[in-house]
Amino acid sequence: MESLLGVSIEANARHAANLYLTNRPGGARFTAVDERLIVTLAGYGRVALEYSRLYRRESDLRLRAEVAEQRLETVIRASSAGVIVVDAETRNVLLATDEAQRILGSELRSGVRRESYETPVRYLRPDGAEFSTDQLPAPVGARHRAALRPDGGGLRQGGRPPHPHSGERGAR
Question: Would the pTM count as exceeding 0.70?
Answer without folding.
Answer: no
